[in-house]
């Protein structure tokens, strides 16, 4: 009798309709479509409704899906963005569903437009960072050629600025596409040096005193020897331009351009690894 009862229950379960919801399966794509797509578009590109939102249009998720960390995405989805149409989703999605949505957003791909990045950099950033990114403007901005920030950190700085400096948030001034394009343009600035030319310059300008980059030693405050490669590019640049050896090298050093110094440093780095 008991066996027949279990068989009956199993048969009933097999015959009853099983409707799988997005919540049951944690289908990030379905959750995104239900909660985000009306403004951000199914594929992460802003919908017509999203473009019409006031005071700020919806953001293109595809452009910076790879450039924003999960913690920031989680915060925005959970709590929304003040003074915008992005309302908190913590009442519609639980923690696991939010993670599934983030997983789906992270599948988006975007090919940066470096030409647009350079154009928008010229419109928004050059007043402080200069046309070449070297920040020789007297504004106290960072020299972007020597920046060690990765792409995600560059995007975060552009979106939220740097407290206590003139670097203000650009997230309402620039679209996500512009931010992604500028970030990639800036990131590429540090790789424009020419080590081969740096080798020639080192031979002509430096080799009289320094037989090779590896042989260079610098004295720290504690009078301990340090290998040249211990210095970051910005400090090394200052040593080359303004170090005590300039009195000896004279015009050979002071007449070097910023690009030439960057080339020399590229050669030095390559030969001290």
Describe this structure in words.
This protein has 273 residues and is mostly helical. The protein has 3 domains: 21-105, Orthogonal Bundle (Cytochrome Bc1 Complex, Chain D, domain 2), CATH 1.10.760; 114-189, Cytochrome c-like domain (Cytochrome Bc1 Complex, Chain D, domain 2); 195-270, Cytochrome Bc1 Complex, Chain D, domain 2 (Orthogonal Bundle), CATH 1.10.760. The chain is built from 17 helices and 2 strands. Strands 1-2 form a two-stranded antiparallel sheet. It is elongated. The relative contact order is 0.09.
Entry keywords:
single chain; 273 residues; mainly alpha; Cytochrome Bc1 Complex, Chain D, domain 2; two-stranded antiparallel sheet; 17 helices
Topology:
Elements: H1 2-15, H2 22-25, H3 28-35, H4 37-40, H5 48-52, H6 61-64, H7 70-79, H8 95-105, H9 114-124, H10 126-129, H11 151-160, H12 176-189, H13 195-205, E1 217-219, E2 225-227, H14 233-242, H15 246-249, H16 251-254, H17 258-270
Antiparallel strand pairs: 1-2
Summarize the structure.
This protein is mainly α and 273 residues long. 52% of the residues lie in helices and 2% in strands. The termini are far apart.
**What pattern of helices and strands is seen along the backbone?**
HHHHHHHHHHHHHEEHHHH
Low-confidence stretches: 9-23, 219-224
Mean pLDDT: 84
- The percentage helix is 40-55%
CATH superfamily of the largest domain: Cytochrome c-like domain
**Which percent band covers the strand fraction?**
under 5%
Termini gap: 80 Å
Report the biggest beta sheet as strand number plus sense, adding barrel if it closes: 2 strands, antiparallel
What does the radius of gyration come to? 27 Å
Counting DSSP E segments of at least 2 residues, the number of strands comes to 2
């Amino acid at each position: 009798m008991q066996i027949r009862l279990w068989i009956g229950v199993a048969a009933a379960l097999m015959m009853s309709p099983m409707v799988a919801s997005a919540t049951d399966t944690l289908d990030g794509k379905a959750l995104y479509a239900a909660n985000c797509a009306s403004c951000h578009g199914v594929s992460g590109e802003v919908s017509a409704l999203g473009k019409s939102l006031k005071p700020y249009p919806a953001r293109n998720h595809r452009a910076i899906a790879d450039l924003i960390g999960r913690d920031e995405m989680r915060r925005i989805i959970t709590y929304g963005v003040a003074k915008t149409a992005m309302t908190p989703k913590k009442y519609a999605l639980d923690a696991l569903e939010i993670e599934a949505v983030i997983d789906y957003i992270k599948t988006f791909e975007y090919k940066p437009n470096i030409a647009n990045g350079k154009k928008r950099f010229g419109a928004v950033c050059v007043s402080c960072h200069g046309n070449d990114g070297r920040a020789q403007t007297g504004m106290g901005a960072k020299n972007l050629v020597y920046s060690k920030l990765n792409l995600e950190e560059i995007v975060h700085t552009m979106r939220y600025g740097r407290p206590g400096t003139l670097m203000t948030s650009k997230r309402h001034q620039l679209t996500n596409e512009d931010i992604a394009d500028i970030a990639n343009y800036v990131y590429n600035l540090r790789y424009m040096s020419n080590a081969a030319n740096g080798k020639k310059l080192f031979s002509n300008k430096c080799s009289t005193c320094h037989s090779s980059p590896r042989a260079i030693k610098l004295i720290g405050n504690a009078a301990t020897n340090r290998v040249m490669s211990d210095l970051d590019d910005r400090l090394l640049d200052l040593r080359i331009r303004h170090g005590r050896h300039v009195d000896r090298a004279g015009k050979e050093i002071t007449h070097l351009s910023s690009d030439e110094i960057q080339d020399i440093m590229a050669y030095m780095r390559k030969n001290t690894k």
